[in-house]
């Protein structure tokens, strides 16, 4: 629980006297409140034995820790009758359990003592909460909102990264983590989140990539050998150009003999190279399985529809593209650099490459092996992958030996190549889950959570979408073997209001990761370019239930550091909604029903007058980026004032409402007006039109949001996320803003009406009135 997490942060503040717990009671420590009472009073042999309640799922309530602005209790809240019993038998012990002077002063007064330890909400006092069915029946579930969206929080771990594509650990007991940037650098981080100034690996001169947003080439994968502690071997996957030919390369490096935090750059040995016929669909994952073999995940070679050969690369078992490969790299210091595992599925097929483990893959982006349920090991070794789709669907697969995963015959559950799809010899395996492109257009595979700190997440497969920024989860029903989908949202209200936690992240979800202890992370950026230092690594935290701190404590082995340390400085903030709502104009006609969108008025030569007025007011009264609420009152509406004012206005001749100014903008969500989000439409030379998303980014979005009176931009959207404005002309393309312009026309852009895009690329924004507050101490 969140309070336990906060309690854990203060674990250094121990009691002045350690009470010895008898051997027959020590096995109770670490169990949940459902297993045993975490505060046990015994009077046997004239001893009082106290077990801490800080590990209870309800620790936040018991210790009054929900509100970080109030002091946390040092003693859990007790029910009155139980407190009297405690006071009668053990009151003298509290002076050793708590440094609270006020509690000590009340030691000889039963009524005042127990009143001081009472809780306002008696349902949560101890031990009454143990028998409260309403409080205990959902302890194993993640908190969700009314629509089933799981409420989670984040902790910022690293920042300032250029497209962080991977984060791995060495599994050597040091609990270091290594973060790879697309440009070809890998950085070493210590458990306290400090970074070594000298990179672990720097092959940026060799790596093929570019500053273009969305370039799929570059440094793509890294994995430590499972026996790294003994052989010091690390494997990497990157793009390279050789004599004007693009390839993917898998290489082996060894750790430096002089520095455990640096690879020997001269030790590179090229294990495998595969020619890439196009610049996209490069794959990029490297994993070691429980069998000790190296798994390599390649893309289909690029372009649309896998056009290579009769049936494409993915269905051609004699090609290494569009495959999951499995090779043995052990004992390769002499002889071949890799060998073929004898149980590979096609070793006896003369028409297939023996490295092939599975096929029918389009472009699997991020895969992971399930560690298995912590106690039973159920699910251990399952191989999950996210496979990026073509035009309609993204999918999640569980990869098994020798299986065909359908591409290009099938995309998700849908037929892509109808002739191949109806061919019975394909015998393809369907995904465990697929989602349409209205939810996201580029899946990023994740992990099954098997960590310690957030027990309610155990068994949950968490993944995301690069384009939409959506976080998602799947949970297997063990009885039916079906997978249940739940979206993941950031916690609202007080859910994430604890030191070090935030509830927002950058849109482009690049990758997921596990640390050595099994905790889950993801990497994202606001600008998906290999040269933009906007990448952040986030740790996923479930505040609804926290594991006992003692249970999850790790003791990293010491690390010899020869490089200067760069201390971690968090930059992201917790977003808190402001308590007041922005002023609204009172309508003179009845408002539509709650939750129903207001349909767009038919287009005419004279635009709707109230929209003109709103646009005019927004342009005249732009809000500056500030956390304060405007103190001046907004101009009164032309209608909806006092009755006397309306009578006076009736005496005047009706005037033609003014035309919007050039550069005025509005937001449209499909065919309805959007309040804080929508497709951007701009008014230029007497007509409304759309903006193409070429070069569209958060700087341009900030200009639009500020025009509309929003001080904050959440993100810039692309690919007609809020629908296509196909009834309008495309007026702007190639918009490049610094973010300080008054409107989009002041930004650099192509000539008005000149463009090379369609309405499928209509740009949009999501704006916010929310305040951004740093809650860290």
Automatic annotation (TrEMBL):
Record's GO cellular component terms: membrane
UniProt key word Transcription regulation: no
Cysteine disulfide links: 737-747
UniProt xrefs under SMART domains: SR (SM00202)
Renumbered residue ranges of the record's region Disordered: 576-605, 620-664
Record key words, sorted: Disulfide bond, Glycoprotein, Signal
Composition bias, Low complexity: 620-631
Composition bias type Basic residues, residue spans: 635-654
Family annotation (InterPro entries): 6-blade_b-propeller_TolB-like, Glc/Sorbosone_DH, Quinoprot_gluc/sorb_DH_b-prop, SRCR, SRCR-like_dom_sf
Residue ranges of domain SRCR in the record: 665-768
Xref: PANTHER family: HEDGEHOG-INTERACTING PROTEIN (PTHR19328), HHIP-LIKE PROTEIN 1 (PTHR19328:SF32)
Protein name, per record: SRCR domain-containing protein
């Amino acid at each position: 629980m969140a309070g336990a997490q906060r309690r854990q942060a203060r674990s250094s503040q121990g009691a002045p006297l350690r009470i010895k717990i008898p051997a027959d009671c020590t096995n109770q420590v670490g169990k949940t409140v459902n297993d045993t009472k975490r505060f046990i009073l015994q009077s046997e042999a004239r001893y009082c034995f106290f077990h801490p309640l800080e590990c209870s799922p309800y620790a936040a309530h018991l210790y009054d820790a929900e509100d970080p602005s109030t002091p946390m209790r040092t003693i859990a809240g007790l029910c009155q009758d139980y407190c009297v019993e405690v006071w009668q038998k053990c009151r003298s012990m509290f002076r050793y359990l708590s440094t609270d002077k006020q509690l000590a002063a009340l030691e000889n007064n039963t009524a005042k003592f127990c009143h001081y330890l009472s809780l306002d909400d008696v349902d949560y006092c101890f031990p009454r909460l143990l028998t409260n069915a309403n409080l205990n029946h959902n302890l194993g579930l993640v908190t969700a909102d009314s629509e089933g969206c799981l409420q989670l929080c984040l902790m910022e771990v690293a920042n300032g990264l250029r497209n962080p594509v991977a984060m791995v650990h060495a599994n050597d007991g040091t609990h270091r983590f290594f973060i790879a940037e697309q440009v070809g650098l890998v950085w070493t981080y210590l458990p306290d989140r400090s970074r070594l100034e000298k990179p672990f690996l720097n092959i940026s001169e060799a790596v093929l990539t570019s500053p273009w947003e969305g370039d799929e080439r570059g440094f793509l994968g890294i994995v430590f050998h499972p026996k790294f502690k003994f052989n010091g071997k690390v494997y990497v996957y990157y793009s390279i150009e050789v004599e004007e030919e693009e390839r993917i390369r898998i290489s082996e490096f060894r750790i430096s003999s002089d520095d455990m935090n640096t690879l020997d750059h001269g030790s590179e040995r090229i294990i495998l190279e595969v020619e890439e016929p196009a610049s996209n669909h490069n794959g990029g994952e490297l994993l070691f399985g429980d069998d000790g073999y190296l798994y390599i995940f390649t893309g289909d070679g690029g372009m649309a529809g896998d056009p290579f050969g009769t049936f494409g690369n993915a269905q051609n078992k004699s090609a290494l593209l569009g495959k999951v490969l499995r090779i043995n790299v052990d004992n390769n210091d002499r002889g071949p650099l890799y060998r073929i595992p004898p149980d590979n599925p096609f070793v006896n097929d003369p028409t297939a490459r023996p490295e092939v483990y599975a096929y029918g893959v389009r472009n699997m982006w991020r895969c992971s092996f399930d560690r298995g349920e912590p106690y039973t090991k159920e699910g251990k070794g399952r191989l999950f992958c996210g496979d990026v789709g073509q035009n309609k669907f993204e999918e999640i697969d569980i990869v098994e030996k020798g299986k065909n995963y359908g591409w290009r015959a099938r995309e998700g559950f849908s037929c892509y190549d109808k002739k191949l799809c109806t061919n019975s010899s394909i015998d393809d395996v369907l995904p465990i889950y697929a989602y349409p492109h209205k939810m996201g257009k580029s899946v990023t595979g994740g992990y099954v959570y098997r960590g310690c700190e957030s027990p309610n997440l155990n068994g949950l497969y968490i993944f995301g979408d690069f384009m939409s920024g959506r976080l998602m989860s799947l949970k297997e029903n063990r009885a039916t073997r079906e997978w249940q989908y739940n979206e993941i949202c950031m916690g609202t209200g007080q859910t994430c209001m604890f030191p070090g936690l935030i509830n927002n992240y950058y849109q482009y979800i690049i990758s997921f990761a596990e640390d050595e202890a099994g905790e889950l992370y993801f990497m994202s950026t606001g600008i998906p370019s290999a040269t933009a230092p906007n990448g952040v690594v986030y740790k996923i935290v479930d505040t609804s239930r926290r594991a006992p701190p003692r249970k999850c404590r790790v003791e990293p082995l010491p690390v010899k550091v020869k490089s200067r340390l760069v201390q971690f400085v968090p930059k992201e903030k917790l977003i808190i909604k402001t308590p007041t709502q922005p002023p609204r104009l009172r309508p003179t006609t009845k408002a539509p029903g709650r939750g129903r969108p207001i349909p767009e008025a038919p287009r005419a030569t004279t635009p709707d007058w109230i929209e003109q007025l709103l646009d005019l007011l927004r342009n005249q009264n732009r809000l500056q980026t500030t956390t304060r609420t405007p103190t001046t009152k907004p101009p009164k509406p032309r209608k909806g004032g006092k009755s006397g004012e309306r009578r006076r206005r009736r005496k005047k001749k009706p005037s033609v409402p003014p035309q919007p100014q050039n550069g005025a903008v509005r937001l449209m969500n499909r065919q309805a007006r959007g309040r804080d989000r929508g497709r951007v439409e701009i008014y230029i030379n007497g007509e409304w039109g759309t903006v193409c998303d070429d070069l569209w980014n958060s700087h341009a979005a900030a200009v639009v949001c500020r025009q509309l009176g929003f001080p904050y931009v959440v993100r810039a959207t692309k690919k007609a996320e809020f629908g296509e404005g196909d009834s309008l002309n495309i007026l702007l393309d190639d918009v490049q803003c610094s973010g300080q312009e008054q409107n989009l026309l002041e930004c650099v852009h192509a000539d008005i009406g000149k463009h090379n895009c369609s309405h499928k690329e209509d740009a949009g924004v999501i704006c916010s009135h929310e305040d951004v507050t740093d809650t860290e101490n």
